[in-house]
Amino acid sequence: MGPSSVVLLPYAPSSVAVARQYLSSDLQEWGVYETVIDDAVLVVSELLSNALRHAHPLPSGQIKVAWQCTDGYVEVAVSDGGSATEPRAGRAALSSLGGRGLGIVEYLAENWGVRHEGDVTTVWAAVATADTVSNGHAAVPSPAVRECI
């Protein structure tokens, strides 16, 4: 398993920018290509925005965002307190203001899915990399946990 990070964020729209910044910084440090970083940051933005719009916070009142580099992929995941509906990619009308998030994720990621563990729902996506880490073996303590208030 490669380098990984976990960030606990407030259940608030401002957390999207914070998650994007942390993810981008980590992936740059780990030697991931800029185009892959851009895709991963957009994917995490969509997953986190969807969680904030459609799901409940975790019991702590927060939302968890995690990422790792493994086997030629950057895997990102957003965990929340679940919702009444299952996350799925839809077909938004051209005039719709929203409804494209998981379609964007589906386009950019090699694969994505949903895991349920008790009251926690995690939506994850794997973005492919040609050479995820420039030296092939980045050594980062696992997992780095940050809590942003």
From TrEMBL:
GO terms for molecular function: protein serine/threonine kinase activity. This is Histidine kinase/HSP90-like ATPase domain-containing protein. InterPro entries: Anti-sigma-factor_SerPK (IPR050267), HATPase_C_sf (IPR036890), HATPase_dom (IPR003594). Keywords: Kinase, Serine/threonine-protein kinase, Transferase. Residues 10-125 form the Histidine kinase/HSP90-like ATPase domain. Gene3D superfamilies: Histidine kinase-like ATPase, C-terminal domain. The keyword Protease does not apply.
